[in-house]
Automatic annotation (TrEMBL), chain A:
The gene is yqfC. NCBIfam families: spore_yqfC (TIGR02856). It comes from the Bacteria. Coiled coil: none annotated. This is Sporulation protein YqfC.
Automatic annotation (TrEMBL), chain B:
Residues 335-362 form a coiled coil. The keyword Transmembrane helix applies. It holds the Pfam family YqfD. It comes from Neobacillus paridis. Keywords: Coiled coil, Membrane, Transmembrane, Transmembrane helix. The chain crosses the membrane at residues 91-112. This is Sporulation protein YqfD. InterPro entries: YqfD. NCBIfam families: spore_yqfD.
Length: 101, 398
C-alpha cells in the first residue's frame, strides 16, 4: 500500500513538474538507431547474452531483445550499447512469468 | 565512456571466457568498475571481450570466484608495440643509420669543376684549393664558404683577375677569368685611327694607313689621326684598316690629400672560435662557450647550409671567429707624407691610363699643410698611345 502511494506521488511529480519520467520512476531509457543499435540506460544487470538474444534485468520485469549477430559494444553497471540487427524489443512483466519465452 | 586513443596508448587485451554463468560474471565485472567492450558470443558457452591492460590482473581475481575459466588471446596497443619495436630494434637502428649516412654524403664535396683556366692555372688553383682543404671527399661544413674561397683564391694566385665560386649541390663550380688571356687576332675591317684624348703628338709609328697629322700637332679627342683610305691622288681610294701607334703627351692634374696621423685597427693575433647550429632563427651553441673578453674585436661569421640529398635543410652550421683588434696610429713627417701622397697620386693616375703609358714628368704645383693634412696638387706629363680605331662605314665614306 505504502509503495503504491510513493509510486503515485512520483508519477504526479513527473506529470506536473515537467521532470523526465525515467529519472523519476526508475524506468529504462531505450534509444534505438534504426535496426542497428540499441542503447539502454538504467538496467539492472545482464541475464542472457547470445548472438541472437539479449535479456536484461530491469527494476520491474525484464527486457528481451531479439535479432541477429549481436555484439555488446559497451557495458557499464547501468548502461549497455548493443550492436547487430535488431528484430524485436519486448518487455516481460513479473506477474506473467515466462510469458514470452 | 572510454577514449579509443587513451585505451590504445595504455594497451588492451582480448579475453576469452568459457564456462557457465558467463552473464553473471560479466555483471560482476561491470559492477566492479571494469570497462568491457566488444562482447561477442562464440558458441554455447564461450564469449570474448576486450578490456584495458590495467584491468587484466584484476579480472583473474573475479574469475576465481566464478565458474568460468578465462584466457587472454590478443594483446594490442602501445605497450606491446613498443615491446615489439625493442625486439626488432635492428631495423630501427638501420633506418637511422641510413638517414645519417645519406645526410653525411649529401654534405661531402663530390666534385670541383674549373672553367676558363689554362691548364697551368688550373693546376695552381687545384693546389691552392687543396691547401684550403677543399678536396673531393671532404665535408662541406669544415671548409670556407664560397666567398671565402673566392677571396683567398684571388689573393693567393696572381694570374687570376677574378674567380667566381659557386656551390651547386655537392660540386664546386669555379669560373675563372685570367689576367692575360691570349688576345684574339681578329680580322680588322677598314678603319681610321682617331684620337681618344686631348694631346700633343710626340711620336708616330704607323704600319698601315695615311698619316693625317704630324709630330708636335695638338689634337682634340675624335680628331682623325690616320686615315684608312689610301691610294694615288685622282684614283679611286682603297680602303684598309689603319694600324699603328700614335704617342701623345697628355697632361693630367691630380689633387691629393693625406692625413699625417691615421688610426688603423689591426689584429693582434688573439682569437676565439665559436661553433653553433642554427635552426631557422634559433641558434644553439655547440662548442666555444664563455665570453671572449676582448675590448675591440671583429667577428667573422661563416654559415654553412646543410643539405639532405638535393634539398637544403633549415639547419645551418655556423662558425664564428672573433679576433681581438688593437688601434694603431701611423704618424708621418711632412716629408714622408708628401712622398706617400705622390705615390698615391701615381697609383691614381695609373688607373686612368693604359698599361704601356709612361709617366714622363711630374711636378708639384701646389703644396699645403692644413688641419694635419698634406694637400698636394701634382701635374703629370704622360706619354700614351692615343690612337683608337674607328671603323669606316659607308655613311662616313660617302
Amino acid at each position: 500500500m505504502a509503495k503504491n502511494w510513493v509510486g503515485r506521488v512520483r508519477s504526479w511529480m513527473a506529470k506536473n513538474m515537467d521532470l523526465p519520467q525515467d529519472v523519476m520512476m526508475d524506468l529504462p531509457r531505450i534509444t534505438m538507431i534504426g535496426q542497428i543499435h540499441v542503447y539502454i540506460e538504467n538496467h539492472r544487470g545482464l541475464l542472457t547474452f547470445t548472438d541472437k538474444e539479449l535479456r536484461l534485468l530491469l527494476k520491474q520485469g525484464q527486457l528481451l531483445i531479439k535479432g541477429k549477430s549481436f555484439v555488446i559494444k559497451t557495458i557499464l553497471p547501468e548502461e549497455i550499447l548493443l550492436e547487430g540487427k535488431i528484430d524485436q524489443v519486448t518487455y516481460i512483466n513479473d506477474d506473467k512469468p515466462g510469458g514470452e519465452k | 565512456m572510454k577514449n579509443q586513443w587513451i585505451v590504445f596508448l595504455f594497451g588492451r587485451v582480448t579475453v576469452k571466457v568459457t564456462g557457465r554463468g558467463i552473464e553473471r560474471f560479466l555483471n560482476v565485472l561491470t559492477r566492479n568498475g571494469i570497462l568491457i567492450w566488444n562482447v561477442k558470443r562464440h558458441g554455447a558457452n564461450t564469449i570474448t571481450f576486450k578490456i584495458k591492460l590495467q584491468d587484466a590482473m584484476k579480472i583473474r581475481h573475479f574469475a576465481r570466484k566464478s565458474e568460468c575459466r578465462i584466457s587472454f588471446l590478443r594483446r594490442s596497443g602501445m605497450p606491446f608495440l613498443l615491446k615489439r619495436m625493442f625486439k626488432n630494434s635492428g631495423f630501427l637502428i638501420g633506418a637511422g643509420m641510413f638517414l645519417v649516412i645519406v645526410f653525411l654524403l649529401s654534405n661531402v664535396i663530390w666534385g670541383i669543376e674549373i672553367k676558363g683556366a689554362k691548364p697551368a692555372t688550373e693546376y695552381q688553383i687545384r693546389q691552392e684549393l687543396d691547401k684550403m682543404g677543399v678536396k673531393i671527399g671532404k665535408l662541406q661544413f669544415f671548409v670556407d664558404n664560397e666567398e671565402g674561397i673566392q677571396r683567398k683564391l684571388t689573393n693567393n694566385i696572381g694570374a687570376l683577375t677574378w674567380v667566381g665560386v659557386e656551390l651547386k649541390g655537392t660540386t664546386y663550380h669555379l669560373q675563372v677569368v685570367e689576367k692575360n688571356e691570349p688576345k684574339k687576332q681578329k680580322k680588322l675591317s677598314p678603319r681610321n685611327l682617331v684620337a681618344k684624348k686631348k694631346a700633343i703628338i710626340v711620336r708616330m709609328d704607323i704600319d698601315d694607313g695615311q698619316k693625317k697629322v704630324d709630330v708636335n700637332d695638338f689634337v682634340e679627342p675624335g680628331q682623325l689621326l690616320v686615315s684608312g683610305e689610301i691610294g694615288q691622288e685622282g684614283q679611286k681610294p682603297r680602303l684598309v684598316a689603319a694600324k699603328g701607334e700614335v704617342w701623345g703627351e697628355i697632361w693630367y692634374k691630380s689633387h691629393v690629400e693625406l692625413p699625417m696621423k691615421t688610426t688603423f685597427s689591426v689584429y693582434n693575433g688573439k682569437e676565439k672560435r665559436k661553433y653553433s647550429l642554427l635552426f631557422g632563427k634559433l641558434e644553439i651553441p655547440v662548442w666555444g662557450f664563455g665570453k671572449h673578453g676582448f675590448k675591440d674585436y671583429k667577428t667573422e661569421i661563416n654559415i654553412h647550409k646543410l643539405h639532405f640529398l638535393k634539398w637544403e635543410l633549415p639547419i645551418s652550421y655556423v662558425d664564428r671567429t672573433i679576433r681581438e683588434s688593437r688601434e694603431a696610429v701611423r704618424t708621418y713627417t711632412v716629408k714622408e707624407a708628401e712622398e706617400s701622397a705622390i705615390e698615391e697620386a701615381r697609383k691614381e693616375i695609373k688607373k686612368k691610363i693604359d698599361e704601356e703609358a709612361i709617366i714622363k714628368d711630374e711636378k708639384i704645383l701646389h703644396r699645403d699643410i692644413k688641419n694635419g693634412k698634406v694637400i698636394l696638387d701634382i701635374h703629370f706629363k704622360i706619354i700614351e698611345n692615343i690612337a683608337v680605331g674607328q671603323p669606316i662605314t659607308k655613311e662616313i665614306h660617302e
